[in-house]
Design goal:
Elements: H1 2-149
């Protein structure tokens, strides 16, 4: 009996230790559960903040893309305007240049005609002068002959 009592006491002591171990584990488990809940709450906060920051980043990117597109449109319009102005200036210069060339061609054409007429007058005068010189030299010869006769 004594043996039975000792074994019962031993079983009761073991049971007591096991019960206290179970309570300790339950307490640790409860603490672990609480820590896990805290971690989940913190993680949920981080995830929510990340979602907001990502949405803000996407919004900023969309805004930048819109502004870039507007800037590109304004730049293209400005370049087209510059090209149109340059073309207009060049066309005016070309028109002025063409008018100037036409004027010069006209003046040169008139000048050539005038020079041709003056050259013809000079040729005729030269021919007449040559005839007079020939006639004069023939008269001079006769004057020389007359002087020799004297």
């Amino acid at each position: 009996n004594d043996r039975h009592t000792r074994e019962m006491d031993s079983v009761k002591a073991m049971h007591g230790r096991m019960a206290s171990d179970v309570k300790a584990r339950d307490s640790q488990h409860a603490a672990s559960g609480s820590k896990i809940e805290q971690m989940e709450t913190a993680l949920a906060g981080v995830v929510d903040r990340h979602k907001r920051e990502l949405a803000d980043a996407h919004s900023k990117i969309s805004g930048l893309q819109g502004r870039a597109s507007e800037d590109k449109g304004r730049h293209e319009e400005h370049v087209r305007s510059l090209l149109a102005n340059e073309k207009e200036t060049r066309d005016l210069h070309h028109a002025t240049l063409k008018e100037r060339v036409d004027y010069l061609e006209g003046v040169l054409g008139e000048s050539k005609t005038k020079h041709d007429q003056e050259l013809e007058v000079l040729k005729n005068a030269h021919v007449a002068h040559a005839k007079e010189a020939k006639a004069s030299s023939s008269r001079h010869a006769t004057v020389d002959e007359r002087l020799q006769r004297l």
